Structure formats: C-alpha cells, structure tokens
C-alpha cells in the first residue's frame, strides 16, 4: 500500500435515539483493495455503509474520501465523487426498463462530472455494455419484475457500477443465493476489482468473504473488534466468541 | 418524435383545432363547455408532473388553482393588464407557493405528504376568506371588459387562451417525460434512496416538480374570474378540482403525457353532458364511480391497459 488511503474514516459514531449503532469506528480503505466487512446481524455493518455512502448522516467523527472531507456531503454528491453502493434489499427502479435503470446513474453521475459528458448513442452503448458484463444483455427492455433473484442482484451491481465509481460498497450482494449463483456474483466482483474499482464487501457467507477479501474488518455490537488479514481476523478470540458464543 | 418536433406538431394541431372550432361553431355554449374541459386538461397534466412522474400525491390542486385566480383578481383591481400577463403572474405566484410547499413538506412521504397538501388548501382558503380586499367570504364580482382584444366574443377569447395554455402544458409534460429530468422524477417515484445513490439530487428535483406543477395550475386559474365573473372562495377552492385532477390522470394513465389528456377529455366531457342533461350535482358521483371502476379493472389507466395489451401481443 502506498500513498494516502482512498477512504479514511475516524471515530465514526451513529446513534438511533438511545441505541448506539456505531461507536467510534476507525476504518481505512486503500485504493484497489478488496475489503471484507463482517459481523453478526445487527452489528452495524449496514449502518456503517449507510454513513460512509451518505444514505445516513453520522453523528460524530470524520470521513475523508480521496483527501477530501465529505462529512455532511449528500449521498448523490458522494456518488458523483466516486462512492457507489448496492443495497442489501435490491431497490431497482421498478417502473423502468433495465436499460433505463442504468441510464439514470450515467446521466446523473458520469455526465455531471467535468469533461465526461456522454451523448445519447454513447450512453446507450455504455448501458448495453454494462448489462452484457453481468449477463443481462438480452433483458435490456424488460422490467425488473421479470428478473430472478440473482439477476436482480446483478442489476443492483450494474447500476452501482454505471456511475463509474472508484469505491464500491456491495451490501450483502449474495444473500439468499445458491452456491453457484454466489460464484457468479463473486466473478463479477473480481472483474470489477481488476478493472480498478476498490471494493468493500459486506457479507455473511464466510466462504465468499474469505476467498474474496485481502483484508477483513469485523464489527460486533457497533464496535470494530478485528482488522487484518482474513486468516488472522477469524482466529481472533473475540471474533470466535462473537460468532460461536462463549 | 423529438421534443422540438412535438412542440411544433402539437402547436399546429392546437391551431388547427382553434381555427376549426372558431369557424365551425357559433353556439357560445360550446366554447363555455370546451373551456372547462381544457382547464381540466391543464390541471390534470400539471398534477401528473408531481403525482404521476415524481410520485407525490397532491390534494391541494384547488389551492394552486385559486391562488392563480385571486392573483388575477388583485391585478384586476390594481392594474389593467391583459389576461395573458395575469396568467403569467398567477403562474409565478402559484409556482412560489409550490416551491414553499415543497420545501416545507417534501421530507414527508406518501400519505403524510398528501395530508399536508390538503392542509395547505385549507390554510390558503382561510387566508382568502379573511382578506376583504379580494371580497373575503362574500366573493367578488369581476366585470369583464366590453370587448375581447381579438375578434369574437369574450368567451371565445378565454377559450383561445386556455387552448394555448393546454398546448404549452402538454408540450412541457411531454418534453419532461423524455428528458433526463423526467427519468430523475421516475427514479424518485420508484425509490428515493436508490435515486440518491444513483446520483439524482432528489430534493432539488422534487422542488422543480412542485414548482412547475403549481405554476401550471395557477396559470389555469388566472382567467377564472373573467370566466365566471363572480369569484368566491367556496367555489374556487372547491374540492372537486382536487378530486378531478387526481381522478383524470388515474383514469387516463399516469406514466405518460397522453394519460391525463385522455382522462380529462373523457371525464370533463361526461361531466359537462351530465350538467346539461341531468344536474351538476351528479358530477362528483360520476367521477367517484368511474374511479372505483378503473382502480379495479385498470389500475394503470387507459394507457396502461393499451400498453399491456400491446406487450401481450408482442410475446
């Protein structure tokens, strides 16, 4: 790892009323990294992703992306800066065809950046390319309701990638999928990482996390209890206790 | 068809319609009735920009409409501006009201937003009722100028203005529908969090939507004092405007510009016929019954019905 990290969060805290969802989390993500973020249900993984991507606003701490503080920057601007995310429960634009689902991030993100304006035909081509990358090319004009669960996950990833991000949060992109479907999604994620996108994978399926991540961060009850290579992290006694009980 | 071509084609169609009706029809009543139908096309189209494209249900149509009408009353008492200028002024004032409403309420979602718009209508009506300068609850008589500024009767003049506004509203709606702005509106309607994550500045777009929708409603209200010559809060804020502007897009279809037009022509005409042949008291009953029928058999309106037929045939 050389140079400053792509994302650096220090002391990020978030509470919902009296419930402390995140307690002073420090986390850094280096450019090009594949970071796994794990933890039991309710440990604050999704809340952390929501705070980092701007869906929620954190109460304390600071977040720096690419050398620029982004505290208080609304979600749509973070997407324009290069932070994309997929949602744990797929949230497609239900009334729009697949190709229009991808057109929206292209029009509102890529075209909102300086010197990147794409004209109509170029956008069309890019959308088709993105759909082809995830194997949905032949359903370009279908509505999301025609898709299977795994296809829905792929659409969710394709839409996040359409904004040409530098950092992608994949929030449980494989939940509820069969082993072979998990492999399909993993292959997509590896390809994206090879193309230069830094990926933070939030996942419960340990086999997938272990094979994908170069580093692992473990959250339990809103606190970070481990951060290191995947092998080290899962041997950490605190992590064992959190997952397996006393 | 590109946006520019649609503006030209729809202009030619509107102009041809104007010439044909002005030449072919001599009975004043038809212009009186057609004005109402056109006014509903504008209201339904304006409502659909916020309600159909952006997914926010507005029950305050009557308020925006009446604000436009009362703007014209104030201008009528203070200046001698031509009606088209009053329509612009009504549009500006209602647009500002729309912006304010959007700013105050758009953190509310779904049914809460709808309730807030209903409250807005009541607040606005209360203000007008207590404002003596524009007649208060007694209402106000507006004396029409003796001659229309163009040839023909005064009602024909108002009809021509409303036809022009109809053209503009429909062309604006059609342009938005096919634009980046329209896709952004649709994204907000489908899922606001996902829209934001896709780079859509949701708050800004919602404000554009409420402002534009309110402005068009206000523009359609501005000629009302000259049309009825007696304006009072009870009739200008009437709930029937809100009910109709929701029902018409719903029955016609909310995803496309043509939906509100079909709905308004259909419901507006039926209501005119009922008024003449039976009684105007039947109007809301007719709307209610048709609404129930459509919600059950064609929840996506007439346009939705045609689209699903077409899709089924293609498969």
What does this structure look like?
The complex is a heterodimer of chains A (246) and B (315). Chain A is α/β, with parallel strands linked by helices and 246 residues long. Chain A has a domain at 7-91 and 165-244: P-loop containing nucleotide triphosphate hydrolases (Rossmann fold, 3-Layer(aba) Sandwich). Chain A has 9 helices and 10 strands. In chain A, strands 6-7-8-3-9-10 form a 6-stranded mixed β-sheet, with helices on both faces. A 4-stranded antiparallel β-sheet of chain A has the order 2-1-4-5, with helices on one face. In chain A, a hairpin with a 2-residue loop joins strand 9 (215-220) and strand 10 (223-228). Chain A starts with 6 loop residues before the first strand and ends with a helix. Chain B is mostly helical. Chain B has one domain (3-239). Helices cover 77% and strands 1% of the residues of chain B. Chain B has 15 helices and 2 strands. Chain B has a two-stranded antiparallel ribbon with strand order 1-2. In chain B, helix 2 runs antiparallel to helix 9 and helix 12 runs parallel beside helix 15. The longest helix of chain B is centred in the first third of the chain and has 26 residues, at 28-53. The two termini of chain B are 25 Å apart. The mean pLDDT of chain B is 92. The chains are: A alpha/beta (246), B mainly alpha (315). The interface between A and B is medium-sized, with 31 and 20 residues.
């Amino acid at each position: 790892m050389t140079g400053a990290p792509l994302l650096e969060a220090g002391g990020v805290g978030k509470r919902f009323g009296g419930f402390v969802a995140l307690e002073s989390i420090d986390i850094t993500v280096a450019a090009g990294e594949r970071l796994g973020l794990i933890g039991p249900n309710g440990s604050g993984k999704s809340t952390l992703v929501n705070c980092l991507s701007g869906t929620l606003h954190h109460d304390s701490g600071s977040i720096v992306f690419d050398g620029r503080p982004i505290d208080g920057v609304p979600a749509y601007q973070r997407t324009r800066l290069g932070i994309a995310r997929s949602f744990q429960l797929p949230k497609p634009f239900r009334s729009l065809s697949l190709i229009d689902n991808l057109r929206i991030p292209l029009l509102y993100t890529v075209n909102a950046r300086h010197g990147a304006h794409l004209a109509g035909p170029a956008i069309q081509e890019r959308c088709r390319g993105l759909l082809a990358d995830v194997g949905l090319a032949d359903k370009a004009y279908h509505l999301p309701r025609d898709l299977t669960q795994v296809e829905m996950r792929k659409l969710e990833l394709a839409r996040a990638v359409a904004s040409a991000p530098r950092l992608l949060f994949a929030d449980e992109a494989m939940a509820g999928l069969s082993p072979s479907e998990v492999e399909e999604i993993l292959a997509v994620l590896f390809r994206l990482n090879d193309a230069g996108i830094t990926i933070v994978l939030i996942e419960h399926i340990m086999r997938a996390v272990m094979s994908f991540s170069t580093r692992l961060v473990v959250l339990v009850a809103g606190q970070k209890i481990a951060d290191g290579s995947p092998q080290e992290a899962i041997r950490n006694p605190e992590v064992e206790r959190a997952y397996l009980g006393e | 068809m590109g946006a520019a071509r649609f503006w030209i084609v729809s202009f030619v169609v509107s102009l041809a319609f104007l010439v044909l009706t002005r030449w072919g029809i001599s009975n004043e009543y038809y212009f009186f009735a057609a004005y109402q139908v056109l006014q509903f096309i504008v209201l339904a189209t304006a409502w659909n920009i916020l309600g159909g494209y952006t997914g926010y249900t507005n029950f305050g149509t009557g308020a925006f409409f009446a604000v436009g009408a009362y703007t014209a009353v104030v201008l009528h008492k203070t200046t001698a501006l031509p009606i088209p200028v009053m329509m612009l002024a009504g549009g500006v004032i209602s647009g500002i009201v729309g912006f304010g409403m959007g700013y105050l309420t758009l953190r509310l979602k779904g049914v809460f937003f709808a309730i807030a718009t209903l409250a807005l209508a009541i607040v606005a009506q209360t203000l007008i009722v207590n404002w003596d300068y524009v007649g208060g609850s007694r209402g106000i008589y507006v004396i029409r100028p003796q001659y229309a500024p163009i040839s023909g009767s005064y009602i024909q003049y108002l009809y021509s203005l409303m036809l022009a506004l109809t053209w503009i509203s429909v062309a604006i709606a059609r342009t938005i529908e096919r634009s980046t702005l329209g896709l952004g509106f649709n994204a907000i309607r489908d899922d606001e969090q996902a829209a934001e994550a896709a780079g859509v500045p949701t708050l800004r777009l919602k404000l554009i939507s409420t402002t534009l929708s309110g402005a068009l409603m206000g523009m359609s209200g501005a000629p009302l004092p000259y049309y009825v010559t007696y304006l009072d809060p009870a009739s200008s804020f009437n709930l029937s405007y809100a009910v109709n502007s929701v029902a018409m897009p719903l029955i016609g279809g909310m995803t496309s510009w043509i939906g509100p037009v079909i709905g308004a022509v259909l419901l507006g005409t039926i209501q005119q016929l009922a008024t003449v042949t039976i009684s105007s008291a039947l109007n809301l009953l007719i709307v209610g019954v048709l609404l129930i029928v459509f919600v059950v058999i064609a929840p996506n309106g007439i346009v939705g019905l045609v689209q699903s037929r077409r899709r089924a045939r293609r498969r």
